[in-house]
Inverse folding.
């Protein structure tokens, strides 16, 4: 019962019942400027990025959940400036471009293709609501022609400084940059294989 009560209280507090806020515009967040240093990696050849995400990440809601609950929720008075799918895609382009060109589509059949699928981008609370973290989960496959060069699953977490929407956004910013850096490092390790002709 105590656990259920804690979850109920947390749900009501985070959802925001809107009392006294009728007609107030929602607060809007994005991932901020890409100012964090990236890993020192060798330059690479161009890669074409094909990005997709689960349907729940195509809207602008700031998603949160309690523990491993199967039901995600969105803050009532907070929104992303664009969908998480768009925000993460743009951040990956920004950070991966520091090692080499990232193309929207293949320039030729010889251009390696990086397929990225975003399956999680949310703030996850402990059952008592005392702490939370931003979680980002993506899968990537690198193709050379029709051949699979390599694939990787990247899961990152970052602690939220505060247990609210702003804290969740800060945590997701860090988790996204961590995921982008891990993807850049993995891509660098695959570059030689991807560059071989005849895929």
């Amino acid at each position: 019962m105590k656990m259920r009560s804690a979850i109920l209280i947390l749900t009501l507090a985070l959802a925001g019942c809107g009392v006294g806020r009728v007609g107030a515009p929602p607060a809007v967040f994005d991932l901020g400027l890409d100012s964090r240093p990236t890993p020192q990696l060798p330059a690479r050849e161009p890669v074409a990025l094909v990005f997709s995400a689960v349907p729940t990440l195509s809207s602008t809601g700031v998603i949160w959940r309690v523990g491993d609950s199967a039901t995600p929720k969105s803050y009532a008075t907070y929104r992303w400036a664009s969908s998480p799918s768009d925000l993460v895609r743009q951040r990956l382009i920004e950070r991966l471009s520091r090692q080499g060109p990232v193309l929207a589509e293949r320039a030729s059949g010889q251009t390696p293709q990086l397929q990225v699928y975003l399956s999680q981008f949310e703030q996850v609370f402990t059952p008592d609501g005392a702490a939370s973290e931003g979680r980002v989960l993506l899968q990537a496959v690198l193709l050379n022609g029709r051949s699979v060069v390599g694939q990787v699953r990247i899961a990152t977490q970052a602690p939220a400084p505060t247990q609210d929407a702003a804290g969740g956004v800060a945590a997701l910013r860090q988790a996204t940059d961590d995921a982008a850096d891990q993807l850049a490092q993995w891509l660098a390790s695959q570059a030689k294989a991807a560059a071989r002709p005849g895929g």
The radius of gyration is 19 Å. Strands lie at 27-29, 47-53, 61-66, 73-80, 102-103, 113-125, 132-144, 147-159.
